[in-house]
Amino acid sequence: MSASTLGRRAEPDVLPLPDRLRLRAAVTAGNLAALGSRLANRGSGASIRGQVMTRIAPDAFRLLLRGRRIAGVSGTNGKTTTTHLLAAAVRAGLGADSARLVTNADGANLHYGIASALSQAPGADLAVLETDERVVSDMIAFGRPEVLVLLNFSRDQLDRHHEIKALGRSWRAALERGGDDGPTVVANADDPLVVWSAGTAANVIWVDTATSWTADAALCPACGTVLTHDGERWDCPGCELTKPAASWLVEGDSIVTPDGTRVTPQLRVPGAFNVSNAACALAAAVVLGVDVDAALRGMRTVTSPAGRFATATLHGTTARLLLAKNPAGWAEALPLAASDPVILAIDSVAADGKDVSWLWDVEYEQLQGRRVIATGPRAQDLGVRLTYAEVEHQVLPELAAALTAARGDADSSPPGGSTRAPVDLIATYTPFQRLLKMAGLR
Amino acid sequence: MTAHKGPVEIVLVYQSLLGIYGDRGNAMVLLKRLQWRGIEAKLTIVEPGDPLPASGSVYLLGGGEDAAQVSAVRLLKTDGSLFRALDAGAVLFAVCAGYQICGTTFTIGERDEVIEGLGLLDVETRRGPERAVGEILSRWRRPDGTETLLTGFENHGGFTTLGPDAAPLATVEIGVGNANDGTEGAVQGRVIGSYPHGPNLARNPDLADHLLQLALDTELEPLERPEIDELHRQRVEFVRRNARR
Ligand SMILES: [Zn+2]
Fold first, then answer.
1. Cβ(B109)–Cβ(B66) below 8 Å
2. Candidates A155, A226, A384; nearest CB to B48
3. Chain B residues touching residue A358 (CB < 8 angstroms)
4. Which side of chain B, N or C, has fewer Cβ within a 10 Å radius?
5. Other Cβ atoms within 10 Å of A318 Cβ, number
């Protein structure tokens, strides 16, 4: 394991004067734009700040990354939660020194979102950064991260990036260019695309995350041969790609560390997939020099990263908000949703993916016997999907109507009211953001 | 396929290879539309490496990436059962990449390597000038002359041209279809190819029933499902309101 300690400060990187002045002007303009956005009640302004900054200083992303020790977190699902877990672990490790840490906690993970977060903490020399899959190669090239967490790689918004393999190829190239000075990659050994994508890194710490989503990994990403799966193992009969031996393991609710110690994270975020996320965050925290106990203590403070799993009362209905962005995300979220009725909100603007074909890759059949309220602009598509799945449902495209209908339902069951269990509400990206706004959580 | 013994078999071919856009939806739709009519039916999902049954009534091919297309062609030719089933009167419905591999040739990769297809449709696919992505609306003329609108979502880089033995499935009103030439899909005997991928049949119940009637060689009772008709209506309205060109 690396000899890194958390106490070691990043070497300050003094920018040449012209760069410094340009960056300062960009940050000032960005802050003004963000303030305007806040005054106009249009959200935090983080995104507009980054856009304005990047217009004035196109290399703001690169400049702001300099002089920091960086941990990047990427993957299709779980990167926001994992970033929160890792940041909390580092914060706990830093103790009174926590001002050294900066993170993009709001999930703004493109170039300008990252630049925006960094611009607000010029003195923070430790950065835990959620990084969109498309930004990973630039993060490696410009940020020279100390550690990079690669969680999983599955289909997301296929109408936009139709070939995830091309992204994996760009990661491989960037890691290869990074060479021996490249990041220590913490990677999910269960995901063939991740294993292949991380294959050129000089140093990889494999985590057996005990995840089972293989529907997007039928073919070997290296040679195109059909992969074989045998229990938790997977192999390519056509080349040497195979599930690597992992040093960190997830076993049920526990995580086994490289020296064989079994720890129980006892997270406050639900689901087996979050134990997997925690294992990756823990491995990365240790690379940064956080000790396991402090990291676990920190991770236990995480409750609703960027609104995920938050409970809010909206239109008189108390709802627990779950986000699912793609079939793999739905496979994780659906078993968590135990309420009756359950509300499912579907949209198909760019951020959700304009094509809702994925509805047919989700096993909504598991909701048979309960009542579903289908809502959002594509509620009718979901309704038809539920009809074919033989699930009793109601189609109410307006969120407010769906929430009201759920309240009506719940009212009729237990008397008393206030101690009612929340209604589980799973939403795709856009309705999820709308709900957070309605609840004042964003 | 007139005298049927046992349940009607719907065969979903290589789901994990060719199922990238929820293509299993087509299988679920066909299965349920038989069962809702009281017709005994079963779904057989065949994964790569496992033999295909020759006993199916309807075979389904879905979308996939380049490498998946090449693997699927090789596996299907080696297996041989699909060809035998079609000779015996089965119906094949292929969408997106599955449609392309049914043709005589198609291309893959950056260098447009030409790959020999299954040869079930007299069509050829080559890389188009730009990727066709979005909602598509077309008019399908049924064998009895009546017309129905088909709605779907297309996402393909290849453009397909039809030879003399294949007829277009439909006429494009909005979208790209085969090659921006006003045609969509291809029909040749009991093989039907179409670009709108994934749960194509969920939005187009008439096409679903047409496939079943073709396979069973019998007229089916109409199904009253207003919710499914409403989805069809909404998608037609949406694509006309947001036409790409
Ligand atoms: Zn291989």
1. yes
2. A226
3. 21-22, 198
4. C
5. 17
- Asked whether residue B40 is assigned to any structural domain, the reply reads yes
Active site residue B102: no
- By 3-state DSSP, what share of chain A in percent is helix, strand and coil, each rounded to 5? 40, 15, 40
Q: The whole model's pTM is what?
A: 0.91
A328-363 pLDDT tens trace = 899 999 999 999 999 999 999 888 888 999 999 999
Domain membership of residue B186 (yes or no) is yes
A101-148 pLDDT, tens digit per residue, is: 999 998 899 999 999 999 999 999 999 999 999 999 999 999 999 999
pLDDT tier, A394 (very low <50, low <70, confident <90, very high otherwise): very high
**Residue A212 pLDDT more than 80?**
no
Answer yes or no: do A219 and B71 touch at CB < 8 A.
yes
Domain contains B3: no
Task: Give the domain CATH number at B65.
Answer: 3.40.50.880
**Rg, Å, chain B Cα set:** 17
At B59, phi and psi to the nearest 5? Answer: -110, 140
Q: Which of A185, A92, A180 is nearest to A131 (CA)?
A: A185
The angle formed by the CA atoms of residues A407, A410 and A414, to the nearest 5 degrees, is 140
Asked if residue A324 lies in contact with residue A343, where contact means CB atoms within 8 angstroms, the answer is no
- Minimal-distance CA residue of chain A relative to B27: A360
Shortest CA gap B16–chain A (Å): 6
- CA dist., res. B83 & res. B81, Å (int): 5
Q: Supply the DSSP string of A54-86, one letter for each residue.
A: HHH-TTHHHHHHTTSEEEEEE-SSSHHHHHHHH
* pLDDT average, residue stretch A392-413: 84
Distance, in Å, from the CA atom of B90 to the CA atom of B55, rounded to the nearest integer, reads: 8
Q: b vs e for A135-168, b when ≥16 Cβ sit within 10 Å of the residue's Cβ? A: bbbbbbebbbbbbbbbbbbbbbbbbeebebbebb
Instruction: Give which of A384, A392, A395 to mutate to test B binding, by max B Cβ within 10 Å.
Output: A384
The answer to whether the CB of A219 falls within 8 A of the CB of A168 is no
CB A129 within 8 A of CB A114: yes
Structure tokens at B9: 């078999």
User: Which domain covers residue B113, as residue numbers?
Assistant: 8-241
* 3-class DSSP assignment, residue A205: strand
In the prediction, which pLDDT does A232 show?
85
Q: In which residue are the tokens 């994270």 written?
A: A265
Low-confidence ranges of chain B (pLDDT < 70): 1-5, 244-245
Single-letter amino acid code for the residue at A262: R
Q: Is B96 a catalytic residue?
A: yes
Q: B219 lies in a domain?
A: yes
Gap between the Cα atoms of B77 and B162, Å rounded: 22
Q: Who's near A34: CB < 8 A, 6+ residues apart?
A: A44, A45, A46, A48, A49, A116
* pLDDT (0 to 100) of residue A44: 74
